[in-house]
Amino acid sequence: MGRVAALAALVPCILGSAAPGAFALPSGGTTATDAKIMTSALAAEPALPDAAAEPGMAAEPGTTRQAQQGKVTLALASVSPKAAEATGKRAKVQITGTVENHTGHQLTGLTVRMRYSGTPLTSRSQIERYAAGQPSALLAGVGRKPVPLAKAAAPNGAQAFALSAKTGDIGMRGFGVYPVGVEVVNAAQEVVAGVITFVTFAPKAGEVKPVKVGWVWPLIDRQHRTTAQAFTDDDLNTQMGKDGRLSGLVNAAATTKTPVTWAIDPALLDDATQMASGSYEVQALREDASAKKPKSANAENWLKTLKQAMRTDSYFSLPYADPDVVALVRNEQYNQISLAYRNMQVATNVLGALPSTPMAWPPSGVAGPSTLKQLVKGRWLGNGPILMSSDKAFTPPTGGYTPNAVTTAEIDNRSHTVLTYDDTLSDILDQNTQAPGGKALTEQRFLAETAMITAERPQTAGRTLVVAPGRHWNPPADLARQLLADTTSVPWLKAETLDKVARTHPEQRQQKSYPDEYQGYELGPGYLDQVHRIQQEANSFASIVVNSPSPVYERAVLRLESVSWRGKPSAAYAARRRVSSELADDTGRVRVISGQTGLAGNSGMVHITVANDLPDQTVRVIVNVASENTAKLQIGKLEGRSPIDLKPGDKVTRNLPVTANGNGRFRLLVQLQSATGDDYGDPHVITVRTTGYGRTSLVITGGALAVLFVGVGVRAMRARRRRKAEAAGDGRTGTEPATGAPGPYYPGAEPLVAGDSGLPEPGTGAPAGAGITGGPGTPAGASATAVADAPAGLSTGLPAGTGPATGANASAGIPAGLAEYPLGPAEDAAPTEYGSAEYRSSEPASGAGTPGTGTVVSGAAARRHASGNGTGPTPLPGADSRATVRDGRPPAGAEPSADGADAGAGPPASGEWTEAGGWFGTRSGNGSGSGSGTSAGSGAGTGHATGPGAEPDPGPASGSGNAGNGTVPGSGTSADGDGRGR
């Protein structure tokens, strides 16, 4: 059995050493039966262990066929001719390549040989089957001259080889595609490596009508930028270099005469222009550090070469950044498609030429009815064709032939031209041609496929074919160049521009539905919704930028919608986050910087400052201001010109007149807007704090000072008269007996003299209680100015006069009930937990009756000024709206209390007081009272105070006082208070 196996293994060698005629197959080639018989003979029995003992047949450890296969590589370097002929230079088939031994062992008897079939293939599907098969299984013919591989037999050895055979010797007779194989065998004649390629035998002159071929030459890449200046990598600089992908594509088209139609992504030209115009920044998506790159000479040269190459070629532009139009339509973001097409103007600007034929190319060459409708409705496409996949978008025609490239599709109830590209050719070109042997196999397969298309209907004129490699095609430069050259040189093809192909007669075909499984590859709705929100924010930012060459951030958003992000969710999310972050930073650089402001009085100006901290962009904004509480704070017209232009780094301030109704804190809402009135960003809040010190306060203060000066003058005059009287020896002191004089409050002060020249007549009324409950009535003849110069901090609701009064401290001039009040602020005037404030009040008071005694019930000492003239009975102090402030909150109005004694009358009086409290604001009150006197008088007092504090509770609505000893019970009321705490 061992000898039988050895003889079987030697059969190929014997056949290979025989004369050509001895092994040449009939012109008809081998049948399937012949191939089966030969394969069975060669593998009749496996080699037996004893066969290894024979010289030259020894089997080294690990050198069995299974161990060697996959570890011995075979790579074809070239196959010629491109179009074989029966005679002349093209009558010999030559194949070169390299064999490498990666087994790590010596492979004794390693050889390489050619295999073939003399029968041309009859269909494209047959080509596909042979391309995926092994020579020993599909090709019966064996070349007569195996080449020994002594160098490759050594461990890790490699050796180049060359095989050749005349076309007639291997059965090539007429036009068609012939499979040719190369295989490596070991000493046992076991195949350890093999590959099948194809050689096309050229037709005779006039034998076939060539097919018109239009090339789509894609210049498209993935996205490399997030914003205008930020590149995520420097890969483009490499691709545009000498041996780069993009450089190879441009050079290949520039060095051949074959016309191509360029499919260009404007974003790629935009990136190249940015790199060629100056330095740029590179920052990886997941890194914080960035690197400054100098101006790219590669990008500059690449653009120059591209412009030169396109002088004789046409092009069509994709929408900017090649968006996933199918996904955008599915998510109803139609406007983004329009924006992408509008920005394809970049290509025209860079190249200096308009697209020859507007054309659309949906991702993967397929799109549903809704997407197609969106593509054709825009003015950018017009009647331009749509480039689509032949097999994926349309059903194959009956008859088993390759249809023409031009057809039509029903889109939005009308027929539209569609150019279909050949899917099989696209797949062949998109294979890994950079791998060893890839170039030769790809070129030969391309020639075989196109020859078979022509052979399907060799005498039919006007047939068309579109070749469109994948968007990111990455061929070796010499392969790309050779494919273009083959299109022009082989007799079964005729190169044509794409726009001319599109004008040929269409072939009607049945359109397919959009494949459901393709939806899983689209950009997802969640991702696109986030991008859409970024777009809305970008639109707001762009609306304020002046004279921008392109909408700011619009192209950044379009890059996020690129179809190149398909299958790369992590990178897409990282790019989206970066754009969103940078947009937020830039948006925040145009802002209102005004904060809290104070307002002295009820009206004034609020200063509103707007800043532009952008480094290189001028903005134009409108400042729109609204009061949050129009009842409390009214605003006027903003001063200055509107809208406002701010250059980089500018700050502009505008004044806004405001009027406040009451004290407190009020909010202004400042909204920046674009020149068209669209809101920009969120409203900015300015807090206006009104203190109530305005013109009225100045008048009151001035009046108080005048009274003070008058009081000082009067006192000086009395002192002079007293000295004169004492000098004259008449014993007069200038005073009258009184128990209600304010002497103790002024150390060393003398009693006042009623009736002295320049002094008010008896009957002057005491001022109304400014927040302090009614005290005793003013004795007859008292002067209202007697306390005008009281030191600050003293209680100001004190009566003054020269008439009799009752009370524990009457002899000292202190009204009854006031002895407990020291000079200076009361203890409970300290700031509470709500803050400190000066409280403001005004209230009238009236009373009638005889003077008597009373009790002041205020909790905090204060300061009061009062003045007045009048006639009639001295009034009793009425109810007072002021009350002690406890824990920062004012209580209800105090109750009046008064006794009547002597008759008197007084005119209106005024008063001012302050008291520590928890809030500031405005509060008013009035009171009235009556005593047992014979006639009535009236008086009024005012007060003013401001200060910080907490949010107030509304003041009490009313209060009632206890009845006095007079005829009519005293009463008091207190109006609501208002204000705002701090």
From TrEMBL:
TM regions (residue ranges): 693-714
Region listing for Disordered, in residue ranges: 722-785, 823-982
Feature: compositional bias, Gly residues: 766-778, 918-946
Keywords: Membrane, Signal, Transmembrane, Transmembrane helix
Low complexity: bias regions: 736-751, 844-861, 890-912, 947-960
Keyword Lipid metabolism belongs to the record: no
Cross-referenced InterPro entries: DUF6049
Domain of life per record: Bacteria
Cleavable signal peptide: 1-24
UniProt name for this protein: Secreted protein
Organism of origin: Actinomadura harenae
Upper taxonomic lineage: Bacteria, Bacillati, Actinomycetota, Actinomycetes, Streptosporangiales
